[in-house]
## 1
Amino acid sequence: MRRFGFEEAEVTRMLSAVGGDDGADASGRAELVARAAWSMLGEPGDRTAGLLVTALGAAMALDLLLDGATPASIAERVDPDAVAGRVALASDIDQALARWRPRLRSGAVVRSFEAAGRCGARLLVPDSALWPEAVDDLGVHAPIALWVRGADDALERLGRSVGLVGARAATSYGEGVAIDSSAGLAARGFAIVSGAAYGIDGMAHRAALATGGTTVAFLAGGVDRLYPAGHHDLLERIARTGAVIAELPCGAEPTKWRFLQRNRLIAAATRATVVLEAGWRSGSLNTAHHAAALGRPVGAVPGPVTSAASAGCHRLIRECDARCVTSVEEMVELFGDADTLAGGGADAAAEGRSSDEIRVIDALSARSMRSPDEIARRSGMSTASVLGVLGMLAMDGAAVRAASGWRKA
Amino acid sequence: MRRFGFEEAEVTRMLSAVGGDDGADASGRAELVARAAWSMLGEPGDRTAGLLVTALGAAMALDLLLDGATPASIAERVDPDAVAGRVALASDIDQALARWRPRLRSGAVVRSFEAAGRCGARLLVPDSALWPEAVDDLGVHAPIALWVRGADDALERLGRSVGLVGARAATSYGEGVAIDSSAGLAARGFAIVSGAAYGIDGMAHRAALATGGTTVAFLAGGVDRLYPAGHHDLLERIARTGAVIAELPCGAEPTKWRFLQRNRLIAAATRATVVLEAGWRSGSLNTAHHAAALGRPVGAVPGPVTSAASAGCHRLIRECDARCVTSVEEMVELFGDADTLAGGGADAAAEGRSSDEIRVIDALSARSMRSPDEIARRSGMSTASVLGVLGMLAMDGAAVRAASGWRKA
């Protein structure tokens, strides 16, 4: 089978460079390569690309492009019934083809796989086991593929993550808030997601690492171009225990547009976004707006009204209905996570416990029995790890086992 | 005519000690004395006292007490139709009589008038020209009388006032916020109302005085007992250019209950209440709750989340829907005062102008003509002063005169 001009051997070589094909069949493998190709054809959030890939599959959509199919014929395949809407769609596709054609070079795809292989990046697509499903809430604006450097565990923990963002121009107050918030949420078993920028973002990542927590950075360029340069070592550390993720392929440069689109990924991948310190026009307000548009909770930490560095947080509270949050407990409340808060909650349970124990306790209910598999799913841990921790908790008297499963003591 | 055991000559003597009878007839004079008597019978906010005085008039209600009327017969006079409700009302009155009887001493009334005369206090009742009508929104909990030391002008300006309150335990940040807020609002022609406590309240009064603005203090005890003692000189200064007001007669001590009830007067007398800095359990939150219960706008100024002194403000924003306000402009927006904000507004108009000029400019409309009387009513100034200021503004080109009145240039 040939796709995008590639021999099967070359497909195998490319995929093995980025962690293999996850056991996919020939058509799954073609889809993987085609999604990788699409991830460099359109800019992030390209609605028309999202539509075609969703409706036709990435490989089929790419073949139509390569075969020189007309916009009208592509539109007819996307939606054979909607005659009226099809004219508008054909017009969108016509404009999109003009954007995509200059990038339709198979050599670039090969090079991006090679660069990914060199830096140890993997390719994820929506069928991948580790794909962060929450980003699919972006609909036609969802990423087509994700390039990832990092641990499986960190990707699993995205299901229980918080976006902590803020301005580059941080004050010592803002940095203190970032350290306390990130360390406190990490200690409660939340993965800390941010954008690796100087200032607040960097401090959020660092505090999570310092407390042994999980942290994930979404980048605006390729994961082989760690940006900003001054955070190269920090990002290498994040990639070792957490994850560094981009929707653009390796080699891609960060641009202003890509930073704004990267913000939508932080908002979508997490359960809530909290802006820790931000000036009136900080880019972190953009992340908050994406989160609000997705219906995700948004929190903002207030600061002195005499500090311009807090004006953006106050603006979010005043104009955008962001919740005023002043402590880690109030950030956890953002999710309305009944299980996390039940029974006096996080604080009491967190005393002297490892973060794995806290995560298993959080995943237990005081009322209903849950199976180890269910607890594994909720905690974002493996079933084997969960069983080990449950054994420890049972000895402590913190968890109770019955025939039908486990519950909080 | 004899009321409460007083000869007419004694009534005349008492009333002349507190600024005369405002030209009232005999029944109006009796009502004045009776309201003064009621102001020491019940504690502030006594619902049953408010009901009887509203339904029967203060003099009639007092005569029934003095004549030893039964609770049932008083209830029947209050509401002859509502047979069912009357039993509950009679029971209320029965309990109230037990509270009031120990205080039913005509000597105390005489002494309170004498004390008021000595400190230059006047007696206001709802019929008085200078009565702050906004407090009537308290319904049966409205004050029955007010004892006032201060300028007519200050009482008139209560119609355009803001309550600025906060904790005694203020930080330098909170004091700075109080100074900026009070001075800024005073410069925009707002009277600054507060409770004369140490900390935020005192700073709000001082900043208003320092900028030549009007400030009004509501006290929990009598206006002859300036409390707290350390603010004696401050309160004397407020009484000279602004006003010091209490609903309890001279000689009354401030008590915890009276402080809480005093807070409802600050909330009711003003167009909005702003909490500038307050800890988690600050009494100023009580003022904010009263304002919210009255449907008055409530603002709270955020501060560092690391400062316990701002925890009450954040609590108001989080739990009580208080508006997060970070500047004088945002405080003015609380009122939704279209005229104040119209045409680029307060800031531009305030440059290099006296506070009287600013108040007249605020009272002018750019669209519609207004008469000097109307401008006097809106600005809380006398018509004579308004005409003087309008002359100045016309020379500056800031105000335009036409046959039908004046408008903003």
## 2
Amino acid sequence: MPSEYFNVPLRHVAIGNQDEFRQPGAVKAALAEFFSTLIFVFAGEGSGMAYNKLTGDAPNSPSGLVAAAIAHGLGLFVAVAISANISGGHVNPAVTFGLFLGGNISLFRGILYIIAQLLGSVVACLLLWFSTGGLETSAFALGAHVSVWNAFVFEIVMTFGLVYTVYATAVDPKKGEIGIIAPIAIGFIVGANILAGGAFTGASMNPAVSFGPALVSFTWTHHWGVLGWASGWWWSCWYCL
Amino acid sequence: MPSEYFNVPLRHVAIGNQDEFRQPGAVKAALAEFFSTLIFVFAGEGSGMAYNKLTGDAPNSPSGLVAAAIAHGLGLFVAVAISANISGGHVNPAVTFGLFLGGNISLFRGILYIIAQLLGSVVACLLLWFSTGGLETSAFALGAHVSVWNAFVFEIVMTFGLVYTVYATAVDPKKGEIGIIAPIAIGFIVGANILAGGAFTGASMNPAVSFGPALVSFTWTHHWGVLGWASGWWWSCWYCL
Amino acid sequence: MPSEYFNVPLRHVAIGNQDEFRQPGAVKAALAEFFSTLIFVFAGEGSGMAYNKLTGDAPNSPSGLVAAAIAHGLGLFVAVAISANISGGHVNPAVTFGLFLGGNISLFRGILYIIAQLLGSVVACLLLWFSTGGLETSAFALGAHVSVWNAFVFEIVMTFGLVYTVYATAVDPKKGEIGIIAPIAIGFIVGANILAGGAFTGASMNPAVSFGPALVSFTWTHHWGVLGWASGWWWSCWYCL
Amino acid sequence: MPSEYFNVPLRHVAIGNQDEFRQPGAVKAALAEFFSTLIFVFAGEGSGMAYNKLTGDAPNSPSGLVAAAIAHGLGLFVAVAISANISGGHVNPAVTFGLFLGGNISLFRGILYIIAQLLGSVVACLLLWFSTGGLETSAFALGAHVSVWNAFVFEIVMTFGLVYTVYATAVDPKKGEIGIIAPIAIGFIVGANILAGGAFTGASMNPAVSFGPALVSFTWTHHWGVLGWASGWWWSCWYCL
């Protein structure tokens, strides 16, 4: 089967089996999700900390958005590429949940993935905190004049675009050779969206990306809740019909 | 047939059949065009609004052009990639019209696509307007000392390059494996052209991209007309000879 | 044969036959070179003119180099991709000459290509001159404290890297699947080199790219000669041994 | 075997044979490593010297990081692509050592590669020194408030990500079609990491990249030692289990 390097085990919602925790495949897949999320968050969150260091915590700027977009876009592309063969390359609880709803991953394996993703993000932020000499892992925040509802809709549209891209290029069994460039597409839609949403909501599109910096800097404003829940994943299921 | 993930149904101009509106394939393809254009315009137009927000509506700058080029280049690449298997990945009335002239899409299906593209752009701008807390979806404008005729020629050359790229990498039956990277090429020629034309004409190359912001901000200067009509598509047919 | 979308007609130096001028394949290939060079130079040279317009002819800056690198890198990638199937995607007299020395193109066809490339660059600059309202198509210039010999070596190293990339990814019969991403590699090595050489020599690596702006602005300093001759092509033949 | 353009000769640690030095394959592979590293370091280090020239040795900035990330990301992608078929595309002593530990290259061939890589970096810096009219090839340095231990951990995490990417996309025999885009992934993870680490440690991830500028500018601070040793390669072996 050409281009079939994404795991697509199921085609309908399934609970899975708690024995999966003991299967080597599930553990290796969770490890792959852990390392991929770690590598992605290290580059992405680290680029934000580098911006703060270089500019003395200046407000965001077009150059800063470009740096953030490139760091997250390239980092996510690589994170998806290096785990695609092992875990399917989710690197994002929103993607895992969307694929669960679409019947492409079982409940137990999905929970395992999400725990691994959250852990990977936390470890990446701890490593950043240490290796930058104790700089703050800045949590996501809303721009001026952006209400919680504005941000909620913004994140829904962006996450919808991301999960749609995952379905269309990686999961769809009719995807054909477009699957070869699927990791690039998945990374680059995040890069493109950051150039729009970065100035308004921080453009997380990924609860794990929000969770790590929030935990390590212990910043629990309402923003975290908004960005964590504003996942457009349930809208993306028109594709799997 | 390798790399055949772009729909190439016809090889000569055809009227099509009004029954196509009722076929599930045509409706699904129009939906794909709608969502792809929405995702593309949301990232592209949103990046311009982010620039205006971060700089306090400052004049454009090299950093701003880079941000616009990356947002549109990556966004269009993804938009083409996620609809290539379903609708052929046009995401642009100029492309649809060019493919109609080349006999690659019927008249009825083409009209359906163009309506979907325009709607996708309008909905993206409405979502941006709401989720940014009511910021203006700035319409395209000409640079200083750029006449309407200058802009007309500029847009013709850029749109010609775009439609040529679509023909050479996605439609040409002899394209071979270059088709695998066709969505990247289609997106990136727009990114490259924005770095040239963005300072002079706004570098639309896409009537849908011009239409959404113009409607939502209700700005109908002559620029819209120029950019809407300056489509080099009819020049691109040397390829299909 | 996998990935064989680059024409590789010969494997040793050949004069060719003047009848080739009358063959439809040679004429179509020359037309493809003309349009590809036009599209590439329009985006690349246009990005420099946009920088001058936006900054009021300010000296170059890191942002300006980034814009130039992206415009040339993406533009050349697309220009190679859209002509690879027809002409082999040279878009550069240095590449054509290097492939002639390596026996991959006949003398007559090579001359035809180079004429088409120079014409494409000139037409692109004329179109830019008109559509920007008469702005100067700025010719390449040396940075401060950079002598002609410095620039000569700089251009040799960069052009060597470019022609090497063409050989290794597109021409080498053992290239395998790397050929699928060859147009990306060819474009991106130019993008990377511009970030180094753009501040010192202008980073042409391409006599056609130097010739068009020099002719249209009628600027014939010694720089043109240096950059036109500093082609590392004859060094690149270790690959074809 | 699809996508098999990376040499993967062995699957366990091996000493190799000193006769390999006399084999044409080993010599050609070492030459490929030499030229690839030369091309990569020329673009990457040259972009840093261009930044210093354009800004008058200003402190680093977000624009400077973006330029460095693009130059190194694109340059390494191309350097890997053009040597993948011949030498496996290491371009990095850390990668060569990691592949030796994983049993994918013999000791003698690995030493040959590392010598070629160091030489390529030195020659690139000498060429840069000459062709820029004698500018300093600035060696890597630590950011303010970054201790040697901070930098050590930073480089370990980044190099781990790089070597992991090499294993997952290029070496893994189960990589499938992801191998087609492996050179892009390998280059782009370095680009992403530079946007994070460039402000703190210089983000070398590559002893050869550190060695050339240090030798040519004769700057031997403790930084060189830290960056040279902080290679996370030995951590990356979970993949080859």
## 3
Amino acid sequence: MTQRTVFFVSDGTGITAETFGNSILAQFPFKPRHIRRPFIDSTEKALQVAQEINETGVREGQRPIAFATLVNAEVLEVFKRHCQARVLDMISSFIAPLEDEFGVTSNHRVGRFSNVAQSREYHDRIEAINFALAHDDGQSARHLAEADVILLGVSRSGKTPTSLYLAMQHGIKAANYPLIPEDFERRKLPTALVPLKRKCFGLTIDPERLASIRNERRPGSKYAELLNCRYEVNEAEAMMKREGIAWLSSTHKSIEEIATTILSDIRPDRLIY
Amino acid sequence: MTQRTVFFVSDGTGITAETFGNSILAQFPFKPRHIRRPFIDSTEKALQVAQEINETGVREGQRPIAFATLVNAEVLEVFKRHCQARVLDMISSFIAPLEDEFGVTSNHRVGRFSNVAQSREYHDRIEAINFALAHDDGQSARHLAEADVILLGVSRSGKTPTSLYLAMQHGIKAANYPLIPEDFERRKLPTALVPLKRKCFGLTIDPERLASIRNERRPGSKYAELLNCRYEVNEAEAMMKREGIAWLSSTHKSIEEIATTILSDIRPDRLIY
């Protein structure tokens, strides 16, 4: 099939619309062009983006798709009336059954993130990001006890991006701590972690994959050698087994999947609200 | 109304389901309890989670809500048949009109993130996170020219979380660079930024808010004093005006909103695909 364009039209950032739309589109065997049109929060802007979509359709000779997350009924109405795309209305489809279920009408508030910057939850997310940065790679043992989770593993096993993701998406305070050759020689957990063992979660990785990642950083180094990677990974896994620390392999997992698995295992109280 | 529980049931991480569900639920004037059940990718697991949901409903005397993103038709069928919650099926609702529109059937592939860890796009996201960390707070001018965007602003104006978000969500290489009193005395942009001005985007912040954020970090310091914050913010804004650098205020915006605005302004090529 020829080029087809998908628009994500939102009164907020459009990130939710696009993320969700992507998982729907992933069910189809081709990758259409994406265009995001955020902050469409007035009838004027709705009209303008409808025209842009219509022009795209004419130019491409194919009707575009438009995922819409427009909460305001009037804005949505104007958009739908003027837009000749196949419009998938992501809000109304679910609002109606919920209004029925809850027995109340919704408030049609625009933008998921409106005023979010002032909220406690947002403040906690930003604090969690700062915490992850301050406690990246075992940088500081200060306040380590405040961590919700401490990731450990060999260098380049995926600890840093996972910690940042846990902070950013979930507001989880995630520290991370490297397991280094000295730890393997001592055959002991880093001292700072001993009293915090129940918060620890290990990441491991396939040695071949690790060698390839390390070689991108420091080509030809002993650090990146496959033999050395095998040694470190074996020792790290043996240590986690010995210490009874849960772990998973990051080799075939995205940071989203790793984070979700960790949360299912650790189940921090703050996530049950 | 009494306690009501909302379940997010997904064959993947459930993050998409929960993010989208949250923006729907934000339209209602109460906050139900959330429970996420990820990786529900077999009929056995579907049955198990349906039972858990039913028990919750009995215990609470209210029918739960279940947002479901289950791609596999059989798993979805078993879940729907056994679950007594109000099930909001987020996939099928949109797949059917798209199959019709595209004139093909979808492949019902489970999990948006399956094998994503091996993809080019994922690799770029991880690289972008590493780049953001290496170029946080003006740490390094090496490879600065590789940045897609360089955020600048006074200390604690929101540069670091925004850079990390741009990297993690969009795979954008975002460096960030502080504007410090020395720059204001010189009345010049930091030298490293001069040749890269067209990639620069400024963040500013309300001085009162800045003082309050800085006071959390270094209570009672000159750095955190309102008078000093006013001076720095004024000078930073004057400099951005003088240099013709676009900027926005982070005071009332979430990192998602800031990132979206920056992307609309900078429009990096790599996002048009």
## 4
Amino acid sequence: MEILNIKKMPPSRILLLFFLVAIFIGSFLLMLPGATTAGNEISYLTSLFTITSAIAVTGLTVVDVSKVFTPMGKSIILIFIQLGGLGIMSFSSLVFLLIGKRITYHERKILKEDLNAESTGEVTDLIKRIIMMVFTIEFIGAIFLTLGFLRRMPLKRAVIYGVFHSVSAFCNAGFSLFSDSLEGYSQNVIINMSVAFLIILGGIGFAVINSSIMYITTSKKRFNLTSKMALFISIILTLVGMGLFLLLEYRNPKTIGEMNLFYKIIASFFQSVTTRTAGFNSVPMGDLTPGTIFLFCILMFIGASPGSTGGGIKTTTFGVIAFYVVGIVRGREDIEVSNRRLSWEILNRALAILVISVAYVSTIILLMLVFDDLGFAETIFEVVSAFGTVGLSMGVTPEMNQFSKVLITITMLIGRLGPLTFALALGEQKQRHARRYPKENILIG
Amino acid sequence: MEILNIKKMPPSRILLLFFLVAIFIGSFLLMLPGATTAGNEISYLTSLFTITSAIAVTGLTVVDVSKVFTPMGKSIILIFIQLGGLGIMSFSSLVFLLIGKRITYHERKILKEDLNAESTGEVTDLIKRIIMMVFTIEFIGAIFLTLGFLRRMPLKRAVIYGVFHSVSAFCNAGFSLFSDSLEGYSQNVIINMSVAFLIILGGIGFAVINSSIMYITTSKKRFNLTSKMALFISIILTLVGMGLFLLLEYRNPKTIGEMNLFYKIIASFFQSVTTRTAGFNSVPMGDLTPGTIFLFCILMFIGASPGSTGGGIKTTTFGVIAFYVVGIVRGREDIEVSNRRLSWEILNRALAILVISVAYVSTIILLMLVFDDLGFAETIFEVVSAFGTVGLSMGVTPEMNQFSKVLITITMLIGRLGPLTFALALGEQKQRHARRYPKENILIG
Ligand SMILES: [K+]
Ligand SMILES: [K+]
């Protein structure tokens, strides 16, 4: 059983195995009689789809979560969201810490890769800090959201809704207890802003939050390059997304056309933030203009920052490639960012992530277009949303046939593991041929 | 006038300048009173669009070429197709040869880049061989096509149609003298096969044809790596495209659904060959299934082989990246193709071409979706078709607003110059900073 020998496994395979085990357990938990409401029994495929969506913090659903699941079912989903959001690795390290077992070098190596920490020594410390940070932020978020919900519901319900949406937002999961996501709250400033800030904090990555805290509390006044790049690209993408959304939907009566300018701007900001990976929506997706659909596909594909709860190819991957292209145009030999130069190895990994992601997404889109009948734009949107673990949909998720549901389930999982795992595979598994072949040139372009 | 000093210009800029001058002259020629039929006067933008489409061998048209232009107008278009197909550089070298002027090293360098010849010494010889080859193939093609057309029209007209379609097919231009391209001949085997073989010969690249002739006529029994890769990828793409088209459209009554199996296969073969860059169609594009639309976008984007009359990012660029990805999956350190390894520099150029092309195409699609109203799939299809100099359209070309027409005109030109020019720029213009910045790592994926 060579392939089941954990000690010898490449970390990327261990990560995959943990996800598979968690999905397997979760899919049966969600099938328990007490998890669904009367008359709403679900098929195993639906359960599998829902729990994968939860642990991959995607948020796509084939059934209406608010109606189909009991409080118990919703709690299971919430737990798996939290599990996925924290990263199974950091969660399992918590278990290790709790039972007092020292983390071995091998375990630490796995953790390190899930969290993108820079040196092995910091891992234990980092995990503690992450757990603290996550619960602190989610707690504060829950208070604000509870206050927001109190206007329309009694205290107990407002607290439950506050906690659920705080965790779901910070983990960039996009699950909501409302059938229409947050469309009913598109003009509620406190809900919009709380959710947006939870998403931003969850999606910016622990490295940036950590650097920020260090910046404020200690004398270490230097952001590392990853943090700078993540912040820079996140801000640019948020502003560009917000501006284009406002422009494209300004006169669309089905989305923000009939709001006043203030709420138009709030809704545009909210939708720009949430589209990159969180997946809540305050305006209906099926009614967007074609330009917005295309814009959203690009934003969903890029996604959040590394070491965060979000998906996509990551802001830093996009940033490295963008700086490279700018460098080409300016005739530079090095890739220069903020008075530093990047190695070609980093560029090659970034390009490999991009190429493999594009190839994978294109293949799944083609398969779904061939074997299902959901429409051209709808299919592209759905697949990119699943791959970026975003969870937005033009409304076709429940209409998919079984083949498409299986493809989307796999895509959510690969989207969660994917680019990172590929990056690792690139960094680790290279093996030189015993005999190298002679070199030959080839004409391209 | 530093920027107009030809001797100091980078070759890529000279290439651009020649195209611009040719387009400028052609756009006025096409405005001459004798070029258009009575009552069908065209605007300058239409003239500019049409002549750019001709010289970039794209074939997109905002008016019905068969009805709007007189024999003189059609001749102008044909001449510009031939000019574009041969490459303005090889054409200008012909002029040099005819007037007995020796080609200077500087001129040869330009030619070399347009033709992708491997060493400067071969250029003069190569140009002669290209001209010979092109006219020989077009002559033979014209004979077959004339025979095909004779069944439905008198001799004189059949000859004119034969010559026009032979040149247009070999140059992968996609211009047709029929309003519905070759839809009326979807069940005519001789026309289909002649056009398909002209397209294949025109799109496989002179290097491959040259190697093949050497293989047959001399003792030099070795294909170089470029030829092998171009042939291998072309065959794979043709077969995959043919198979998927057959599968996707098998039951579509608006395309091949009502043909018998033999003609279904002929039409699938023809459409697979023509989609990668030629742009003729024997079935209506607007009626394709969404899966076929997506498949065609991928095929159009990849395009033909280098040193050919076709466009796209090129089969070899796609091939280098594909072999790289396969190598990653198999854990190899080198990129290995046919017992040879490729340099990382080649891979970087291929990836740069891909990334810049994707970024450019996405930007144009987004702009057209924002400022025009042609539909999601229609816009993506149109832009990819223009960039790949394919010329297929879902029927929206004449409905575009002025802004879109300008964007598509620019995109046809960039598509013709683009990947090649980028490849050159990458190889040539790199300049090292006086002071290199210190290196820093960044987390991606
Ligand atoms: K999500
Ligand atoms: K063409």
